[in-house]
Amino acid sequence: MSSRVSMLVAARQDVAAARGLARAAQAGAEEIKTETRRRYEVIRGAHDTCLAALTEARETARDEIFERFHGEAVARAGTLGRLAAACAPGPAGAPWPAWRPAVTGRAGLLRIGVIAVDEDVPTVPALIPLLDRAHLEITRDPEDGDGRHHRASTADGLIAGLLLRALGGTPAGDLRIWAYDPDRLGGSLAGFAPLAAAGVLTSVGPGGLTTMLDELVEHVRRINETVPAGRPGRRPEPWRLAVLLGDGADLTPQQRAQLDRLVRTGVAAGVHLIARDVPLAEHPDVEHVHLTGRAAYCDTAGVLPVRLDPPPPAEQTAAVCRKLAGALSAGPPPALLADLLPARIWRESAAAALTAPIGVGPDGEPIEVTLGDDPPHALIGGPSGSGKTNLIYAWLGALAARYSPAELALYLLDFKEGVSFARFAPSPRDPSWLPHVRLAGVNVNDDREFGLALLRHLSAELRTRARAAKRYEAGKLAELRAEDPDGAWPRIVAVIDEFQLLLGARDAVTAEAAALLEDLARRGRSQGIHLVLASQDVSGIEALWGRPGLVAQFTLRIALPKARRILAETNLAADVIPRHHAVINADSGAPSANRIARLPDAGDRQAWRALQERLWRLRPPGATPPRLFDGDAVPSCPDFSVHSGPPRAAVGETIDVDALPAYVTMPRAPGRNLAIVGTRGEEAAAILASAARSLAASVPGARFSVACPDPALAPLIAPLRAALPSATFHIGSVAADLFATVSANLPTASPDHTGPHYLLGLALDALTTSPAATTAGAPGAADTPGVPGTVDAVAVRRSPIPPLSAMTTAPGPARVSSRAADPLRTILDQGPGRHVHVLGWWRSVARLRDSLGGIAARFDAIGAWVALDVQGPDLAPLSPAPGGPAWFPRPGRALCFDRSEDRHPRMVIPYAPPGPAAERPPSTPAAPGPAPGSGSAGIPAATTSAAAGDVTGAGS
Ligand SMILES: Nc1ncnc2c1ncn2[C@@H]1O[C@H](COP(=O)(O)OP(=O)(O)OP(=O)(O)O)[C@@H](O)[C@H]1O
């Protein structure tokens, strides 16, 4: 039992020990656990701290990275944006809302949209190359709206934008567009339609592709031939841009080949392609743009997607195109006269040639023309209003500013109505004149004789120069000037505007003028005499084209827009140049010698006046103003000086380069009477007045008596009263007394001590054909039967003048009745030999004949005559030429013939009657004879009777 107890005790003790051990182990474990937990807590705390720090560090780093990235991206976008703005300035790169056309001179890169890298980063303009740089091939995903579905597509919007940018950034006319759009027939580019009218846009239909490509290839070939390779600057040709809007159809092999040629060679020649749905050959010059929905990828942007701009607003496109078309139709703004002037005035020598710019070329450079040995003469052509006069102004301005009056002399003639060259002469409004101008003729119109006079003058100058050249053995002007440095040998430029009027008739004037022109044209070249002929239309001038030798000398041709036949037949350049341009061709019109010049508005009065006044102030001392011949002006009678030769009567002004009086001489010799014939009473009186004034100056002691047998015409005497204050006047019936008295007292010997006596008569026909004179049995009257029914006979019956023989009551010791019966005829026959001369006005040749003795009378007593409105054939009895002179009367002009001086009749311009200077008066023909109770020549009856005083004293 005890064992059992002891065992139990032992067991208990073991259990207790075990328990103690277990408890101790547990306590140890607890301790470890606690320690471990503590450690865990420590570690965990450390971990959390570390993690938080790491997170914070990471965040900081990330923020820094983002910040740096953003900053750099913004900066780079800014740089790229500035770069893009510089590469595509103004209209090439501006977004549509702010877009305006403006010529920038750089059209190479064009904006199509933007590259958006990040939302926070500004976008960068996406540019693609075009003009002078690349062709463009546009491909697209099938979903892009396309021509096949007749919807506006992104591609078409892209093309429209490119076209507008290219047009807006290049000078008007420098870009021509061809649009091949077989499917929509031009509808894709409808906004550009206004350009078609201005020739900028050509729509090409389905059948036109081959022709278009051929033409462009040909153009490239021509450019490559004519523009030297490597020449700096742009070729003087517009860019040509062909837009090909494909319709899915394949090109023919020929079209493909031409297209490939253009791809290879077009860019260098300014010919470009924009091809949509038309594959282009692979070539470095081709820029590819691929469209996917609203994004696009292009070679220039690489992998970066481009967000395309919207198409330009349709109204904006149309407005820009309309404006451009308008500007092109109106032509470019004119150049300025100032562009043609040299930096320093009068510094050039004309020894070798005259060279001056006439306008500016397409590149803005002056286009110079030369007159010298080659080319020597110029032909200018252009229809009315095309700018011939303006061109002449520009040319003359440029010449006159370069060459002094010692180097250049100008003779200028304008045959048409107007006063174009009058500005070169002084006027009441502008006292300045162009010092180079020797002669300016305006309103020359029908005075072809004046043109002839100029040619004769130039011909005389040519002879003078030829003689001098021979003396110095000089072959041309430069040599003559070198041999004779002190001589005055300016180059002469004679400009004749509307010269066809000089050569337009088949008569002696044309024949002589053409012969003189030919001679001047041939020989003038070496003598420094240059002709510049201008005309609206030279095609019909027989005298010109009938003389090929003459035309051939005019190697300088200047054609204004639409000029005909000035250039060579095959040269059509004048048909295509715009307004205010000219084709200058110094090779007789050969097409290869064409130069196109834009002309300044030299007609502008202010610009011209400033230049002229400047040159005028520099004029050499003693320079005289040019002679101005104005065909519409009536010259005033000059002051005649004492003259030592035979007495002479001025019947008007000669039509000549110098404004000289036209005289007929009145020496004491048979036949020295003057008859003025025609119905224009005022002009007849004015001629008598100038004749009287010049005779009075020629012979200071001369006596003058004035007769006007028709009292109705007494007012016409006024100019004679003004010219001859000391003359005696015999109006109405006393006129007959005058003739009777003078006739009866004709000196029989040589009465030089008494001086000449001039009888001036108005309407002397009223003296001679009185029926009463016939009944008086006077020899003259008997030879002069009135012819009832003719105008003269009617006039005789109506004449209020009583029969001369019956009226002749003047007392006088030497009254010889047989002669006194026809005193006028007696004086005409016998007076001049005794220094008694009749200067009278008859209203027709028939009446003059009656005064001379009737139908078979000879005109020997009329040594000189002046015809007014008498037709040439009517002058046959007085004329040296059988059938009468070729004379077509017109107001303000008279035909004069002095048998002792002239071989042919010459045209003269009657002077204005004394008094204030007048314009040419309307012609007032005197009636053939006054009707009973009424005046003639517009004079009322009351005046007539009042004027019919029987006796008037000197100067009364
Ligand atoms: N280059 C130019 N720039 C601006 N205006 C011009 C220019 N050329 C001509 N004009 C103007 O055109 C008009 C006609 O010119 P101009 O008188 O020179 O022509 P024209 O050929 O001589 O005509 P016509 O034969 O009928 O006299 C004028 O009003 C002139 O001012």
Structure description:
The chain has 956 residues and is of the alpha/beta class. The chain folds into 3 domains: 96-226 and 235-330, P-loop containing nucleotide triphosphate hydrolases (Rossmann fold), CATH 3.40.50.300; 357-621, P-loop containing nucleotide triphosphate hydrolases (Rossmann fold, 3-Layer(aba) Sandwich); 661-947, Rossmann fold, CATH 3.40.50. Helices cover 35% and strands 18% of the residues. A 10-stranded mixed beta sheet has the order 2-1-10-9-8-3-7-6-4-5. Strands 23-22-31-30-29-24-28-27-25-26 form a 10-stranded mixed beta sheet. Strands 20-19-18-13-17-16-14-15-21 form a 9-stranded mixed beta sheet, with helices on both faces. β4 (175-180), α3 (194-197) and β5 form a beta-alpha-beta unit. The N and C termini lie far apart (210 Å). The relative contact order is 0.07. It binds adenosine-5'-triphosphate. Adenosine-5'-triphosphate is lined by residues 334, 382, 384-390, 416, 536, 580, 599-601, 603. This is FtsK domain-containing protein. GO terms for molecular function: ATP binding; DNA binding. InterPro entries: FtsK/SpoIIIE/SftA (IPR050206), FtsK_dom (IPR002543), P-loop_NTPase (IPR027417). Residues 933-956 have a biased composition (Low complexity).
